[in-house]
Amino acid sequence: MNNNTFGSDRYEKLLKVGEGTYGEVYKAKDIQSSEIVALKKIKLENEDEGVPSTALREISILKELQPHPNIVCMHEVIYQPQEKKLYLVFEFVDQDLKKFLDQYRKDKKLQLRPYQIKLMMYQILNGLNFCHSRRIIHRDLKPQNILIDAKGNIKIADFGLARAFGVPIKTLTHEVETLWYRAPEILLGQKAYSLGVDIWSLGCIFHEMVEKRALFMGDSEIDQIFKIFQYHGTPTEQTWPALKECPYFKPIYPRFKTADPKTYFKNFCDKGFDLIQQMIALDPAKRISVKDALRHPYFEDLSREDIAKFEPNQVHMY
């Protein structure tokens, strides 16, 4: 077996395209079919411990979420115990949303059409609805984990931090999501949180697509929460009853007043503004559900032809 092939010499590595907390990602070629795929390599550091629990969780969740037009397709899992390596084989998608948006940030002449943004948002919500209806929280939604191909088709990817949730919701780790997309209840240490963390993240992504910049750009956890408070105003237990369950909230925090939304949302249409306000509600209990977001008037002018592309495998909206 040559150094660039594995899995009975079936796949040939072509190019390393990314590296994350849990593994490296390569562009590769299926030698049998000539299909281009993405390989996520997970190194098994300790032979005695076997496959990491994070990898097992991701594989289990991905299998449950297959197939869906707006969730990345996992073709197979290849385990190589002799080399202490585990490979997840995915469909290859051209680029992620961060790289896609970077093109528009760099070139002022390029503009994302409102209808294009609307269709992208609908697809992300459609994939997220599939997750939430199966009681799975992604927990790491950010532009880098949303893939987009040359035709504008969206795929939610990287389920390494995803978790299934039950009732009651178990305590989950706070160290999730890139800072700019992290929900305030996580920043404030709330131990039990739920689907609203994904909705918050997607609201931040929505703003970035429309305004070409991130919504809250903190350089630390405390700076991030203060930037959120500078928009919403510093909460109280009257405005956010569950605030008492957030151990990191301190009475000595500055008392910020609510900001003028126009300074943050300059290019939103009225319906889009209404939707994002419900997505980034400070109190997670007041955030819109993915089901209601899909039914929001913002999407009413999407063509049936466009929506139909993502409906064949769609589950009921709970």
UniProtKB/TrEMBL annotation:
ATP binds at K40. GO terms for biological process: G1/S transition of mitotic cell cycle; regulation of G2/M transition of mitotic cell cycle; regulation of gene expression; signal transduction. Keywords: ATP-binding, Kinase, Nucleotide-binding, Serine/threonine-protein kinase, Transferase. GO terms for cellular component: cyclin-dependent protein kinase holoenzyme complex; cytoplasm; nucleus. The keyword Transport does not apply. Its EC number is 2.7.11.22. InterPro entries: CDK, Kinase-like_dom_sf, Prot_kinase_dom, Protein_kinase_ATP_BS, Ser/Thr_kinase_AS. Pfam families: Pkinase. Residues 11-299 form the Protein kinase domain. GO terms for molecular function: ATP binding; cyclin binding; cyclin-dependent protein serine/threonine kinase activity. It catalyses: L-threonyl-[protein] + ATP = O-phospho-L-threonyl-[protein] + ADP + H(+); L-seryl-[protein] + ATP = O-phospho-L-seryl-[protein] + ADP + H(+). SUPFAM superfamilies: Protein kinase-like (PK-like). May form a complex composed of at least the catalytic subunit CRK2 and a cyclin. Belongs to the protein kinase superfamily. CMGC Ser/Thr protein kinase family. CDC2/CDKX subfamily. This is Cyclin-dependent kinase 2 homolog.
